[in-house]
């Protein structure tokens, strides 16, 4: 059997008692004829790869790392994070500058963008972030 290959767009997902139902939109020129001919209830082995803006497979790990860099930037501007650092004795002044300097010193990085390549710093940042979220829940 020849595998079917086509591009699709996720348009909906829902859950019922037997599992998740994923709805995909397939352009009429893309849908394989054999899929159209198969009866409702046919089973398939599915392999899906998300595409990025350049029509290439997306590396989810890279996306996650970019999110960490963005999160670090947002966190250093967050007044609640400033308060967390102050109350836990990490800084002497609640400010963005103090938060940035503390984070870079703690992670042993020069720039938050190093989180993309520095795995130990990334792991440490995740621990700090989780600790902050736990503190935030308790306040």
Percent of residues in β-strands: 5-15%
- The rounded distance between the terminal residues' Cα atoms is 59 Å
Instruction: Give the strand tally.
Output: 2
Domains, number: 2
Strand order of the largest sheet: 1-2
Quick one: overall form? Answer: elongated
Q: Report the total helices.
A: 5
Which radius of gyration do the C-alpha atoms yield? 23 Å
Oligomer: single chain
- Ranges where pLDDT stays below 50 over 5 or more residues in a row are none
Helix fraction bin: 40-55%
Mean pLDDT, all residues = 88
The description of the largest β-sheet is: 2 strands, antiparallel
**Strand pairing plus helix content: what structural class?**
mainly alpha
Order of helices and strands: EEHHHHH
Short description:
The chain is mainly alpha-helical and 139 residues long. The protein is built from five helices and two strands.
Task: Please describe the topology of this protein.
Elements: E1 9-16, E2 19-25, H1 33-37, H2 60-77, H3 79-87, H4 96-107, H5 119-138
Helix pairs in contact: 2-4
Please provide a written account of the structure:
- The protein is mainly alpha-helical.
- It folds into two domains: about 1-50, no CATH class; about 60-139, no CATH class.
- It is built from five helices and two strands; from the N terminus they run ββααααα.
- The chain has helices spanning about 35, 60-75, 80-85, 95-105, 120-139, and strands at about 10-15, 20-25.
- A two-stranded antiparallel ribbon has the order 1-2.
- β1 and β2 form a beta hairpin.
- The protein is elongated.
- The mean pLDDT is about 90.
């Amino acid at each position: 059997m020849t595998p079917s290959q086509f591009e699709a767009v996720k348009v909906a997902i829902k859950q019922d008692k037997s599992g998740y139902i994923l709805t995909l939109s397939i352009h009429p020129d893309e849908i394989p004829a054999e899929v159209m001919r198969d009866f409702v209830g046919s089973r398939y082995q599915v392999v899906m790869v998300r595409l990025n803006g350049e029509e290439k497979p997306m590396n989810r790990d890279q996306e996650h790392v970019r999110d960490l860099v963005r999160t670090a930037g947002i966190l250093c501007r967050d007044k609640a994070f400033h308060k967390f650092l102050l109350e836990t004795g990490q800084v002497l002044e609640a400010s963005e500058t103090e938060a940035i300097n503390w984070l870079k010193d703690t992670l042993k990085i020069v720039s938050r963008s190093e989180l993309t390549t520095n795995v130990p710093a990334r792991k440490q940042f995740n621990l700090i972030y989780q600790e902050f979220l736990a503190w935030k829940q308790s306040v």
